[in-house]
Design a protein that fits this description.
Blueprint lengths: L9 H29 L24 H46 L1
Helix pairs in contact: 1-2
Length: about 110
């Protein structure tokens, strides 16, 4: 009796997911890097609360691209995890069916 490998897709898909994660990480970091490096430290220390509306434009970091990137990354990882669990569950179901068939055949003979 030969056991077939249920993880044959693992090596390829893990490499693809890793590459996608690295690409997404680099893409999100490259968008934030110029704004972070262009900021200068404040010339005078702040002693009181300053509302964000009164700050100069150069001191504001746009939150929308960072938020969209974070949600996109989380959704991509979640989708990959669901696909992974689905494939493993299918493999387990197939193994259970195969084993049930073998038990029935061995009990007859």
């Amino acid at each position: 009796m030969s056991m077939r490998c249920t993880w044959r897709w693992k090596g390829e898909s893990v490499r693809v997911v890793r590459r996608l994660l690295v690409i997404l990480l680099l893409a999100s970091a490259s968008g934030a890097a110029p704004t972070l490096s262009a900021q200068e430290p404040p010339s005078e220390p702040q002693g009181a609360f300053v509302p964000a509306e009164s700050l100069p434009q150069r001191e504001r970091i746009p939150a929308a691209p960072l938020l969209v990137s974070a949600y996109g990354f989380v959704m991509l990882v979640l989708f990959g995890y669901v696909i992974s669990v689905s494939r493993r569950l299918t493999a387990v179901r197939n193994d259970i069916g195969r084993l049930e068939g073998e038990i029935k055949r061995s009990s007859r003979g």
